[in-house]
Amino acid sequence: MNNTLKVALCAGFLVPLIASSIQPGEARGFRMRGTQGAAAGYARSGQYGQAAGLRAGRFGQGAIGVNGQNWQGPNGGSWRHGGVNGYKQGVGAFHASGSEGAGPNGGNYQRTGVTAVGQENAYHNSNFQGQSANGSTLNRHSNINGQQGVGETADKGFNYNGANGSSASGYKTNNYDATTGSGTSTRGRDYNTADGQSYGYDATTSYQKGQGFSTTVDTQNKQDYTIDYSKGSKPVVTPTN
Asked: Of 60, 89, 97, 129, which has the most beta carbons under 10 Å away?
């Protein structure tokens, strides 16, 4: 797990402990300001949970903030969330967060995410896992890396399994080389119904920035085809097989 994400989850989930030290229904806060920076914080505690946050910054240089919440519903549901944000002047900014919850009927989920942007680089990663009360499950992920003048890679996907026997999955990738302006992307879907029917596709695309692309599509139970496009012309679709 990314170190920044660890900080978000640990700090965010620990922050509500500050709020738990005050009486239910009570709220506290503070603000401080000096010649070089400022800081503020809050803590709230209620019948069903706590929340707290802290933030601090140095004028003209950067800042960081952390927050967390922890709630328990009257019927048995629960929800926790923690997050951290920060930036440094001339360097970049980041955000990381995580949350999890459970419904009174038995469903639950977990989610994590982190995004960082620098002067020449960018990064994003997120994950989700969930299960419904009747047993259906969903998993999803997204991972993107980019560097100015170098290129980008991306990988996204999901997987679903229904309690009734149906299922679905999908993916999408991209690899772009900024030095040549060329890249390759893939994408696909696969669906299966509870009564045994299947359909979907897989597609691969090669492209040149500002010039055109060529895509090959393989389908399930349908006609395969290619798509070719050059700048200034209409796309040409050609059936295959």
From this structure: 97
